[in-house]
Amino acid sequence: MNLGVTRFEKVAVATAEPAIAVRGLHLSYGTVKILCGIDLELPRGRALALLGPSGSGKTTLLRTIAGLEAPDHGEIALNGQIVANPQRAIKLAPEKRGLGMVFQDYALWPHMSVARNVGFPLEMAGMGRGAREQTVMRALDRVGLGDVAHRRPSALSGGQQQRVGIARAVASGAQTILFDEPLSNLDRELRESMVDEIAQLVAELGLSALYVTHDHSEAFSLAHEVAVLRAGQIAQIATPEDLVAAPSAPWIAEFLRLGAILPVTSGQAPLPGVIAPAGATHVLLARRALSVCPPAQSLLRARVLRCLFRGEDFQLTLALHGGAEIQITSPQRASPGSELGLHVAQDALRWFHEPTT
């Protein structure tokens, strides 16, 4: 299996109907609003990541699309078929929506073999034994697990168990898969390798994918577009590249750890010699805008707080004037407590015209 893909790369055939379309979706638990007017579309053959902090509504949105939660208002359509619309009393059962789901806890039965785990939902749906066994082996072969079909889940690695979950999702014939933080239970090294593996599997199988995560690097690696949620609303939908280059709000830049957010006071930029645009309230001093230089040649100076060797370079945590911190990479080691000069690429600064809240 070639694991060199770091983005779902399946190119979808143009189609009039998206795999998932959500329009004006609202959901509340009592008086607490959880989803507030969600609009999004997932084209067929593409991947969309739902990214946000805990409590932002991303998992509730996924569960509502799956049919595990009922919206108060709005509409959900899958491949052009309306599956939820409370105003029209439409609520299609989860098992009839044609979706596959992959969970963070694998949701595997420990007493069953890998093959039985994949085939059990098909058995419950009434599929005959012969057809079921063929379908299961075809699904396991597609995810590279055909040779472990008779093992128990406990004999597999965490990554293999997650692939069993994917096989079970695609065995049903689902072309749209919902991933609910599938890598959150894995250690960092395995999680990074599984990002590549999931991307490759979804691309090769030609699936559409909605992927919930709180890890921005995971979202950036996997998805064509990323929807950033906060307080039940989508704050920004963009490609990973555009999110990094042009976050729409200061809090998004902070959440994505793009750099330091500095205030603009009385129209004065916090950087010597830099003129703030009219009306700017904050500026993002992004990591990509900075490089180490001799203090005498610098626009900005910083004190080294920490220096960590990362194999090919050093990660420096720096304290800027005013107390803001930022992390940058450097080819050379720097001693904690020492002062460094920073060159600032002014064309890489991102100005905001709104408060951080």
TrEMBL record:
SUPFAM superfamilies: P-loop containing nucleoside triphosphate hydrolases. GO terms for cellular component: ATP-binding cassette (ABC) transporter complex. It comes from the Bacteria. InterPro entries: AAA+_ATPase, ABC_SmlMolc_Importer, ABC_transporter-like_ATP-bd, ABC_transporter-like_CS, ABC_transpr_FbpC, P-loop_NTPase, Transp-assoc_OB_typ2. GO terms for biological process: quaternary ammonium group transport. The keyword Cell membrane applies. Residues 20-256 form the ABC transporter domain. Pfam families: ABC_tran, TOBE_2. One of its GO terms (molecular function) is ATP hydrolysis activity. Keywords: ATP-binding, Cell membrane, Ion transport, Iron, Iron transport, Membrane, Nucleotide-binding, Transport. The keyword Nucleotide-binding applies. This is ABC transporter domain-containing protein.
